[in-house]
Amino acid sequence: MLEIIELYKNLPIPPQKPNKKSPPPKRNRPHRTSKISIPPIPLTLRLAQLLCGSFMLLLIGTLSLTLGAIVAVFDAKVTDTVPDWGQPLVQTNSPLPSPRLSRTLNLLVLGIEGGLSLATGTSSSLPKPAETLWLMRFDPVQNAVSVLLIPPQTRVEIPDRGRNLVASAHSMGGVTLTSRVLSQTLNAIPIDRYIRTDAATFRSFIDLLGGVELFVPESLSYQDSTQGIAVNLQPGWQILKGEETLGFARFQKNEDDRSGIHRQQMILQSVGDRLASPTLSPELPRIVQLMHEYIDTNLTLEELFGLVTLLQQRSPDGLKMVLLPGEFTTKRSVPTPYWNIDTTGRDRVLSHYFDQELNPGTRRDRATTPKSPKTLKIALQNASGNPLILGQILAELKSRGYRNVYPVSDWPDPQRHTQIIIQTGDIPAATTLQTLLPTAQLQSSSLGDLESEITLRIGEDALQLKDSYWSK
To answer: 134 near 150, Cβ under 8 Å?
Structure first.
């Protein structure tokens, strides 16, 4: 505002044209007192003039600030930084290496293919599309972590670009545009911080952890000459190093293969278990400090320690993972398959997993009540070793009113306990189903059939279920 006032002061004053009717000035003209008396300006009028002038200055200042904010917003669309609000997210009295989060933190995790080049204006250095997008919620009160996996093929509205894949938001405007688009898509959820990494950093991180234990469901062979990766994995449980874990995550049979979404969750679960291992505790401060130097993030070192501490000390069921509800869709105008968001499922997930309020126009009953057994889509997967049990449970569920039930391929790793996998975040529906399967364990992940809303993975405990429970 002061700059505007000084600008007005420094404006040149145009010369005044002389009045032809006025007499020419005379030297040493005697001063004459005017006989016309001008009354003083009333106090109320002077106050009105003062208020009017103050209002005009305030209006000019407000317009200046508004224009500045608009310019900043449009400029942020093409920059590659996320503003840091400066609010500390860790308790100041918590020393390293065990700081505590002071409040809930929403973290955007981006995996970028081919390096972390920043936008400098040249086409060769523009950011690459994001191949991995996670939104993580760290809750220090509940001692829990929720993870929303967002398929890169999700179709969203990008400002000034129309409908496009969410992965392309990063190549258009970096982290800033990506976070803005995701916040807008996910009911205006706040995004506090971000982590951005690439393949090389991911491999180094897994190696620093000493590898992760993963179950490989089938033979996987993967080669990537551009990244220098060659992986040949056999089925079964094994400890994978960085290069093998990266190949496990990237393996794809064909363009329609969607199992990579499962493998991302398996890796995340294994990393969480590895961080919680007591054997890793002495090395953890060094690992966190090294990773803070090599990842791109606006987390402080103390905040990163706070996140790792929460992952370590979370409750036994404190890591919940869910896929953004939706389905792959193809249209004539968009021949490439894209992930079409199920808005009701999205609202349900944000309510149950992220404590996010529903939009004013959302039907609360659809987002918060369990889905009807008649329409609930349940996939049955046998992991008991008994090929007959699947048909028995299928018939029993249909007799109990569950109409949309279908079998899928067996899970190769035998399970002792039946798992109710909450594929799309419908916790109330899974809890209702558990009343029919009292020994089953609820699993908040999307490791089941992608086409289902709940995957029922049958374990060995179901072999006694019919005789001990259903017969009653």
So the answer is: yes
Q: How many residues does the chain have?
A: 472
CA 228 to chain centroid, in Å, comes to 30
φ, ψ of residue 65 in degrees (nearest 5)? -65, -40
DSSP three-state, residue 409: coil
Q: How far apart are CA 12 and CA 392, in angstroms?
A: 93
Listed residue (374, 378, 372, 325) closest to 350, CA to CA:
325
In this structure, how many other beta carbons lie within 10 angstroms of the beta carbon of residue 275?
21
Please give the angle made by the CA atoms of 134, 136 and 142, to the nearest 5 degrees.
160
Given a contact cutoff of 8 angstroms between Cβ atoms, the answer to whether 448 and 423 are in contact is yes
Instruction: Assign 62 to helix, strand or coil.
Output: helix
Q: Which residue has the tokens 């599309």?
A: 129
- Distance (Å, rounded) from C-alpha 74 to C-alpha 63? 17
Flag whether the pTM goes above 0.85: no
Instruction: Return d(Cα 8, Cα 231) in angstroms, integer.
Output: 70
Query: For residue 275, which of 323, 314, 238, 245 has the smallest C-alpha distance?
Result: 314
The predicted-structure confidence for 100-141, as pLDDT tens digits, reads as follows: 888 999 999 999 976 654 433 333 456 789 999 999 999 999
In angstroms, the CA 168 to CA 125 distance is: 15
Element (H, E) at 302: helix 301-313
E strand map for 367-421: 378-382, 405-407, 419-421
pLDDT in tens, 414-426: 999 999 999 988 9
Segment (H or E) for 130: strand 130-139
In Å, what is the CA distance from 218 to each residue of 223, 230, 240, 319, 425?
A: 16, 17, 15, 25, 27
Quickly count: other Cβ atoms within 10 Å of residue 265's Cβ: 19
SS3 helix, strand, coil % of the chain, rounded to 5?
A: 35, 20, 45
Asked if 380 and 408 touch (Cβ cutoff 8 Å), the reply is yes
β-strand pairing of 338-341 with 130-139: unpaired
